[in-house]
TrEMBL record:
It comes from Butyricimonas faecihominis. The keyword Thylakoid does not apply. This is PKD-like family protein. Pfam families: PKD_2. Residues 1-19 form the signal peptide. The keyword Signal applies. Keywords: Signal.
Length: 481
């Protein structure tokens, strides 16, 4: 068990503040008065109960003698420096990490025994376990929902939900979502299946409650199709059976704040998130139009001229995504013809009536004439370049320009016999990373594999990593923070 740093140590450090030198810059070559400390990187990520070794090289102007100095390694949780933990009193760090999972700052202090002068270096430390941070993969195995977890150090945990809870999460998996990122609300993972939706604890995947318990008036069945999150964490919307529900996450002190009754109106919301900036809007598959929430009632956006009319699209949304106020969407008309649209959301104000309303500004409409577009099973767009549209079909991923409609690159570096199940770009930490699920289509255990592909500036993809035969037919990805 790690010992708490004693008050006397802190008193000594306070007295030495005037003589101490601290650096958070280049750790390959950090001059600290007459010492040079090398070997400490800018950040570390390590699994709980695994070893952490940091050999340090120290040189001095007049020669370095290890016995002439005292050493201290300690950590504290980010934004909680008043509760530190001691790691080691040795020159080189070589420990088993026992602290709980989370984000930490780590400090290394070297003190001259004769002069009392101290020199310090800080770095970031992230401690994870099998479930605490990484990619959640929802797949279908023999018709059942199956969750595989790949943490940030690439440890794979198969059958994660079933191992913890002793049963499967349900039949006919639909999606996996990370909700509740408000200041006072608890982050939760929701697994959605044809049987309903389950809420689980993100840190260990244990079952907490049925998702229906988080509603004042829950739909039946309570099957989440899409989560739409405000980029500032103020509130969020969920889409279930084409209906929209919302809850406020700001200025509340309820960890499990409930969702309000469904937003009223005659609409069928497409299961795609258009909610990134402050004002939420959606696409109505029934009315073939863009709509928005006007104080609890869905209303149509204003008509507009240009490449298309957002109030009368005459097409079904096949895929849609928003990045702040920018929209990209793949549409299919009544004749089965596909096209991609680029639009921008704008909030305008009516000073006479002290009201605001949302407009969708058409930017362009580009026909998709590729012969394989009708075979596409999934689409993805990265926030890094929103004019690259990726789609998967058979065993290939194609990148095309939403400006010209031209194909820019094709990737087919998957194992023979596998086909693309699902693709999605990382929207948490690495927007250049495309997650890809492939399988042989059987839906059996270990029939699916996961690839991490990196997007280049020209739209091409190259493999970062892959994990063979760890799941079934992939349905959805979500990053567990």
């Amino acid at each position: 068990m790690m010992k708490k740093i004693q008050l006397i140590i802190w008193s000594i450090l306070v007295l030495c503040v005037g003589a101490c030198t601290e650096d958070k810059g280049d750790y390959d070559y950090t001059p600290l008065n007459d010492l040079v400390v090398q070997g400490i990187e800018k950040d570390y990520t390590v699994e709980q109960f695994s070893s952490l070794k940091i050999p340090v090289t120290i040189t001095a102007k007049d020669g370095f003698s290890e016995d002439h100095y005292e050493y201290l390694w300690y950590i504290w949780r980010v934004n909680n420096a008043a509760d530190p933990d001691t790691l080691s009193f040795k020159k080189d760090l070589d420990i088993e990490v026992e602290s709980v999972t989370g984000e930490y700052t780590m400090r290394y202090i070297v003190t001259d025994k004769e002069t009392g002068v101290s020199y310090s270096v800080e770095t970031d430390l992230t401690i994870v376990n099998s479930y605490s941070k990484g990619l959640m993969v929802l797949s279908e195995v023999e018709g059942n929902a199956n969750v595989t977890f790949i943490n940030v150090v690439n440890t794979v945990t198969e059958d994660a939900y079933e191992k913890v809870n002793g049963e499967v999460a349900g039949r006919s998996p639909r999606g996996i979502f990370y909700t509740g990122e408000g200041e006072f609300t608890k982050g939760l993972v929701v697994i959605s299946t044809g049987d309903g939706s389950k809420v689980i604890e993100p840190t260990d995947f244990s079952y907490m409650m049925d998702f229906s318990e988080m509603f004042y008036f829950a739909p039946d069945p309570c099957v989440m199709e899409c989560l739409c999150k405000n980029m500032y964490g103020y509130n969020e919307y969920v889409i279930m059976s084409g209906r929209v529900y919302t809850r406020n996450l700001s200025f509340v002190e309820d960890m499990f704040v409930k969702y309000d009754p469904q937003v009223k109106g005659d609409y069928e919301a497409a299961p795609f998130s258009m909610y990134e900036s402050n004002d939420p809007f959606f696409y109505d598959q029934k009315g073939k139009r863009f709509i928005y929430d006007d104080y609890g009632k869905m209303i149509s956006v204003e008509s507009a001229s240009g490449a298309f009319n957002p109030a009368a699209m005459e097409a079904t949304m096949v895929y849609g995504v928003a990045f702040e106020d920018n929209v990209r969407a793949v549409m299919e008309d009544a004749d089965g013809h596909h096209f991609v649209i680029a639009a921008q959301k704008r909030v305008e104000y009516d000073d006479d009536f002290y009201n605001s309303y949302i407009r969708v500004i058409p930017i362009r409409k580009v026909d998709l004439n590729q012969t394989d577009i009708g075979e596409a099973t999934c689409f993805a767009v990265s926030s890094k370049d929103i004019d690259f549209l990726y789609y998967g079909y058979q065993n290939k991923i194609v990148c095309m320009s939403t400006v010209t409609g031209n194909v820019l690159a094709t990737y087919d570096g998957f194992e023979e016999g596998n086909k693309i199940d699902y693709i999605e770009f990382d929207r948490s930490e690495n927007p250049n990373r495309l997650y890809v699920g492939v399988s042989n289509g059987s839906g059996k255990a270990k029939s699916g594999s996961i690839y991490y592909l990196r997007m280049s500036s020209n739209g091409s993809l190259e493999e970062e990593n892959h994990f063979n035969n760890i799941c079934g037919r992939v349905v959805d990805f979500e990053y567990n923070k």
